[in-house]
Amino acid sequence: MKAKLLLDSGVPKVPPDELKALVAGAGIEVGDRGADFGIVVGGDGRFSRYGRTEDIPLLFVGVRSNGVTGSRAHMARVAYDELPDVLQRIKKREYSVEVHKRLAVSKNGKLLDEVFTDVYLQRGSDSTCIRYKVVVAGPGISINEVAIGDGVVVSTQAGASGYYSYLDRIKGDSMDPRAHSSIAGDEVGVCHVSPTFTEREGSTVRPLRYRVPWESKIRLSLFRMADARLYGASDGRAGVKVELGDEITIGAGKKVTRLISFDQASGS
């Protein structure tokens, strides 16, 4: 059995050599080519990134930390200190594999990538807010709305504990860092980020957050020029620049992300 080690290339949560020695000590070969599964050590940002780019089954490993700079790692299935025992279970095939669908993200008809967790249109550093449209067409649903604010997040079930859940964390004048919402596997979540205005065509309802059927097509665009960026569908820290006249289309993708789980360990 061979494992591929996946860490932050800049500031990894654990020393790469330490992780390699731990895995090798468990009797599992380490290497990229022909790996049976991947071990991702980090936080939700790393999990989201490798969940988007890797096709092999992945084990999400969090590092325990109470510090303000520590990772929240909502999606972690095991903690780093549990890894030696977990690797023995993997060798014995005492795990299951969850399959998560991805969302395909295109700009002006050209595919950017398929995302595992979420993608979001957000104001850049040169704009105080952006003015944008959200158009949704799907089974039994038609939404046409405009908004002014920091941006909008489109999330899968796997990404529900991320940006999509910022509303759950706000409790009056304080916040709960662990609070989060949920999205069903056959749904896509849409969430406006700190809007000052929203309006939905043909309705007096102005929801900050809602869920639509997985088969829906979601289109995002600006209706006034601004410094706007699309994040989550690329590795660049600057995101993908979105200008007036550009259209971002989001819908069901063709690829899936496979995650190693021990909740219903049944051999795989």
Describe it.
- This protein is mainly beta.
- It has 2 domains: 2-92, Probable inorganic polyphosphate/atp-NAD kinase, domain 1 (Rossmann fold, 3-Layer(aba) Sandwich), CATH 3.40.50; 103-253, Probable inorganic polyphosphate/atp-NAD kinase, domain 2 (Tumour Suppressor Smad4, Sandwich), CATH 2.60.200.30.
- The protein is 12% helix and 42% strand.
- It contains 4 helices and 20 strands.
- The strands form 4 sheets. It has a 7-stranded antiparallel beta sheet with strand order 7-6-20-17-9-10-15.
- It starts with a strand and ends in a 7-residue tail after the last strand.
- The model has no long low-confidence stretch (mean pLDDT 92).
Primary descriptors:
268 residues, mainly beta, Rossmann fold, Tumour Suppressor Smad4, 2 domains, seven-stranded antiparallel beta sheet, six-stranded antiparallel beta sheet, 4 helices, 12% helix, 42% strand, elongated
Nutshell version of this structure?
The protein is mainly beta. The chain has helices at residues 16-25, 44-53, 83-91, 166-169; strands at residues 2-6, 29-30, 37-41, 58-62, 78-79, 96-107, 110-115, 118-123, 130-138, 141-149, 151-155, 170-171, 174-175, 187-193, 197-200, 209-213, 217-222, 228-231, 240-242, 248-261. The longest helix is centred in the N-terminal third of the chain and has 10 residues, at 16-25.
